[in-house]
Amino acid sequence: MNRKCLPFLLLLFSVPLIAGEPKFYLSQSRAELGDPVFAVFELEGATQVRLLEKEFHGKGIKAVYWGMEDNTTILNYKAYRKKMLKYRLVVSGPGKYEVPEISLELDGKRIRSASLVVEFGAKPPGPRGPGSIWNRFFSNESEEGPADGDLKVVFQLDKKEVWMGQPLLGFYALYYRNSIRPYFDRDPSSSIEFPYFRSEILSGMSLNIPETVLYDGVPYETFPYNKEFFVLTPLKPGEYSLGSTSFHLEGQLQSYFHMRTIRSVPGKIRVKPLLLAPPNFSGAVGRFRIETGGSPADSKLGEPFLLKLNLQGKGNLAPVQDPIRSSCGSPDCFPEITLVQSVPQREFKELDPGEYGFRLNYSYTYSVLPQKQGLWNRGTLSFVYFDPYLGNYSQLSISLPTVKVGPPAPPLSESNAEKRKDAGWKWWFWGFVALAVSCAAYLGLYQWKKIGKRVETLKRLDEWIGSKRGLVLKHSVLAKGLSEGEAALLADCKSKEKALTEMYSKLDPASKIRLLGSAKRILNDPRQNETI
């Protein structure tokens, strides 16, 4: 009875995993006071999640929302996504605690965590002798931690003043004193404020900043938050405070203090309006150079040729859609020139000592359809941009190439057209013949391999049968799990002293199929080598 119930119980317990039910577990069930312990919800990647609370309280313990991770696993060329919501467990002291009930809303349905127990042990005592190495390096072990004024997260900008449209770099940095550098991470549920700025986030980079700074006349040690960098482009003149959000901080083991949440200190920036722009201003802000090329020396009337233009430099080229059109200030100028492709390329790097940003390389490809014979030359065009380093507008010259436009190519005569048409039909005919021959050869090879495999199977079956005949052979076949009809067919085929390959050709189509099926089942049986 118990053995019969076991498969049913295994199937019952595996249903939540197959159905994609959320999992709830602890990162560890026992830890020392101060070690990070998380309560984790593991969900399917497509699940819609809504947080109901950021903190859940129990007796001497609380669970604080720490963030959400997206995890992607590739198995057998299939991608499986899952989300992990983490709640940091914070306790008042050593002991066993029941994890407070955590509730979420998943796809509009409210769920609650299961009951779990976590144990925090006391920290092992360390030496406390006067003048010891411990006192010198680990003297800040009070769980109260440093004062609030000793910890700051500041949103730093690489510029204090910019022109409208001029990109700047922003990043977070930890300022700390009277403690060993704590862990810190941005609260993902807290939005970041960038009013009237277009923002772009960069990750996976490293930035070097001074190790110590003076902030309000007080020295602080610093450490950059290397997980996120922001490229910000101002859209409106004025004075702004950027980067206000929340950060979680927690002491390391050497100078532990409980997790606390603080607001970042925003960065101040002044955005100056651009000067009165000339009519052919392209909208670009920065410092650039321009190159042209890719055009042929000769062309024919009525046949288009290509013209390429490259803009390189640093700054903001996003407003520039068509540099040739912007040079004349009208979309109707140069009707014979058509923009066919633009490819923006950029690389984030240190442009100059202490200045970070994008190194730009924008390429524009044009199609030119000349309207008359002779020399095609549009002369020199101008590309106007704002140079923030000079505080004024600058101009680049676009030297378009000179192309000799010859007479149009002569039209094809009727005889030439007919010859091309006949040649086309011939290509189609011989191509069809080659395809038919290839298909016939493939089918012939396939049939030949199929016959060879069938003969090999019947010979192996003859070897297995050996000298068995009549009822002995029938009993042996039935022992292999075949049906009565299959056993009778095989016994009839071996009633005479002839090979199965010879008897096979005399059978009807249905019997041939049954005989081959029986052979495969017998020969694939792991017991086929047994003596019967």
Automatic annotation (TrEMBL):
Superkingdom, taxonomy of origin: Bacteria
Residues annotated as signal peptide: 1-19
Classification via InterPro entries: BatD
Key words, A-Z: Membrane, Signal, Transmembrane, Transmembrane helix
Transmembrane parts of this sequence: 427-445
PANTHER family: BATD (PTHR40940:SF2), PROTEIN BATD-RELATED (PTHR40940)
UniProt name for this protein: Aerotolerance regulator BatD
